[in-house]
Amino acid sequence: MLQSLCWALLAPTRALLSVRRLVTRLAVAAAAVAAGAAYGLWGLWVLLRSGPRGALSRKVRAEPPPGLEDGTYGQHGWLRLKSSGLRLHYVARGPPGAPLLLLLHGFPQNWFCWRHQLLELGRRFRVVALDLPGYGASEKPPGKENYSPEIVLGDLREAVGVLGGQNGTHKCVLVGHDWGGVLAWELAAAHPEVVAKLVVMDAPHRAAMMGFSAHRPTQLLRSSYIFLFQLPWLPELLLSLADFQFLRTLLMGPRLGIQNPSRRMTDPEFEAYLYGLSQPGGLSPPIHYYRNLFGDSPVPHERPPCPVLILWGGRDAFLDPRLAPYLRQRMAPGAHLHLIPDAGHWLPEDRPEVVNRLLWDFLEGTE
pTM surpassing 0.70? Predict the structure, then answer.
């Protein structure tokens, strides 16, 4: 009797949640179709400009560019996760027994985006730049279900335990940019026992992103590629057109790419990212991260209890600069925010000197 009464009382709530999920899925599907049509027009323009042969050309890089697989920036290593058997690649620099500083990259990059921080911070920390699952030299399990936030966070939690165990602390300073920052937010909140300090660069907390976008719909236009990535096969096709012209514009374009004139990305640096993405099946795993954004799993709202530093580029083309103070208001009172006015989205490469100085201040407690 009591069980039946509870079921009856909860029935309206269940119905409302079901309706909400349905409306959300329909809205995402409509946005995905609209984004697919818009970006499809760009693909058609590339096809008309370059011709079928030029537009569909896609070169698989046979040899890695200088600096990607040699020891220029640190020692290359791999770790095997016990829970999933996944093999992850990383580059480490600094004394083996020093405190662990773990760097998590974003889309569409790999460990190479942290090369400036490896050289600088490796003087006093054990700096480890990890290739996220599905990126770079890390293993790429098939199927989008392997890249859900819950799965990837579990992999990262275990990776921190393995890498942190090398200095006996099982803790780290966690630094994330873009998708790496999104994961860093949630890892620090869900597993505070393994994160001593948190640094997030141009990456929103998922819950805050939803609230901010609801009040400022222009952010949805900046994030239109997220809806494109919900579609099957089309994003992979568009990103690879004309030998990855879309990604070249993303990282090297005058408005979307690095804003610092003295730090414009060179062709060899761009090739460090294309080497892995150009391999057969190299594009789908990074896109699968986005394809899992609108699943049924709840979005966590907890804020990290550890000290937090937020770094944001004032000319970020993908994330509204007003999102940074919006995030800051939802952090603990001791959280710090630095808006770097002339920097774009790709902060670790755009303003490495400024980023390194702010990191030192935060890590040494002078922030």
Answer: yes
